[in-house]
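Researcher: Structure prediction, please.
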Amino acid sequence: MRRLAFAFFAGALFVAGLVLGGMTQPRKVRAFLDITGRWDASLAFVMLGAVSVYALLYRRSLRRSEPWCGGHFTRPAQRGIDLTLLLGAALFGVGWGLVGLCPGPAVAALATGNGRVLVFVVAMLLGMWLVDRGRSRAASTSEQRY
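Model: Predicted structure follows.
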């Protein structure tokens, strides 16, 4: 129960930060990304705050043997930069720039009832499913070769 309550509190705090910071407003996000036009730098402060909190707490987590609510830490096994990472980052950036939403704020913005946000989230979930399916197929194909 403690774990579920902590997860709920963390999620609610995250959503509140996204809404208060303006990250759920595609127009504001696109204005932040438009550095040659009418640039709105306010989201830079939101990102600076988020990255600062993350950096501080991540450093503290490295000293712990397990998370506060049990379980175990999962950290990426692969630390290098490869083509998949670069293509994924580029696709994420293009999508963010065109639509003005990234996954977290998009899910939070579903509460607005905006049809465009719903279309984005459905497309995002479909894309995630397709990538997962492709990776599963690639893994099963490589297993069959050996």
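Model: Residues 2-145 form one domain.
Researcher: Thanks, that helps.
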